[in-house]
Design a protein that fits this description.
Arc Repressor Mutant, subunit A; alpha/beta; 11 strands; two-stranded antiparallel ribbon; single chain
Length: 331
């Protein structure tokens, strides 16, 4: 065991952050000469650096071809982790000086379920384009713990990632937020019934007709029993779930090409359904409302840049206007 620890220390002592920057550039350029020009190095310096990387990582990493170099399978596997390391290092360096959104080149990571991020992201990007054009955003899809019914436990991994600074902000459909985190209500959401334009259900929605339809459910696991089934069961009703899909955008695409109906978040449908030829109607039974909160570590929010982004995010979704219930009624 001691030898393994010593070996790790030796490998770490040989590591050079510049080698990771070199790796990133070669992956993106696919050519030694272009990499040299990008990094203001000579081609021989790039080749020397690649030799050090190969010895450090015990892999050829890049293979020469007549048109440049191509990554090995090992290099492809390393590309994501190395990009994450460099992004975090750059973020740490960027926080060492005063934060100016107009000139900052920070990169922030935001986590959210896909039906939420696809609502929040467009207005946020529009605001960044105007106020902070060089700030980059990464989106991580958040999923609740499978089988966990308590809200405070369903998002435990998200809270752990916030504390580890693996992401900066989480957007969660829950009010059960531990006290060590700051939260800000973004908006309230409710479900509507979505279907293709011209669907017969849209002309005369009712509970009986809703139960008679073939339904689509968004489910990461493929589980066909959703929250609407629980609401129906309380009324002694059932429905047929004919299809499950893993995300909300895929749901819209499938609704557009079929006679299926689906209970989907109203603001998500209002923002994205038109391009798919999908319409919405108010649900013929109460499917409940939930609150979307932006969440960040109180300790992390002491950093000026993150505090600025959090405030910007908290203001962005409110521009979406009327409620989904009003839109569904109007349609």
């Amino acid at each position: 065991m001691l030898n393994e620890i010593e070996l790790s220390r030796i490998d770490l002592s040989r590591a050079d952050l510049n080698l990771l920057v070199l790796f990133e550039a070669v992956m993106e350029e696919g050519h030694v000469g272009r990499t040299a020009a990008r990094l203001n190095l000579t081609p021989s310096a790039v080749s020397h650096g690649l030799g050090r990387l190969r010895r450090l990582l015990s892999d050829p990493l890049f293979l020469r071809t007549p048109k440049g170099v191509v990554p090995t399978a090992r290099a492809i596997d390393l590309a994501g982790p190395i990009a994450d390391i460099l992004a975090r290092v750059r973020s740490v360096i960027a926080t060492s000086g005063p934060f100016d959104p107009a000139t900052s080149q920070r990169r922030f990571m935001i986590g959210a379920p896909d039906g939420i991020s696809s609502v929040v992201l467009p207005p946020l990007l529009a605001a960044l384009h105007t106020k902070a054009p060089d700030i980059d955003i990464g989106i991580r899809q958040l999923l609740p713990v499978q089988g966990e019914t308590l809200p405070e436990r369903a998002w435990l991994q998200a809270f752990a990632d916030l504390e580890a600074r693996a992401m900066d902000i989480a957007i969660l459909p829950s009010d059960e937020i531990p006290a060590r985190f700051h939260r800000q209500l973004l908006y309230e959401e409710e479900f509507v019934v979505a279907m293709r334009a011209g669907h017969s259900f849209a002309r005369a929605p009712s509970l009986d007709r809703y139960c008679a339809q073939q339904h689509l459910v968004v489910s990461q696991t493929g589980e066909a029993y959703g929250f609407a089934d629980r609401v129906l069961a309380e009324r002694g009703r059932t429905r047929r779930v004919a299809l499950t899909v893993p995300n909300f955008m895929f749901a819209l695409a499938m609704l557009a090409e079929s006679d299926l109906v689906s209970a989907l978040p109203g603001r998500f449908v209002a923002r994205h359904a038109r391009r798919f030829g999908v319409v919405a109607r108010e649900a013929p039974l109460p499917l409940g409302r939930f609150r979307l909160n932006a969440v960040a570590s109180k300790a992390a929010l002491m950093e000026e840049g993150l505090a600025w982004l959090f405030a910007l995010l908290a203001g962005s979704p409110r521009s979406s206007g009327e409620t989904s219930r009003a839109r569904a009624k109007r349609r």
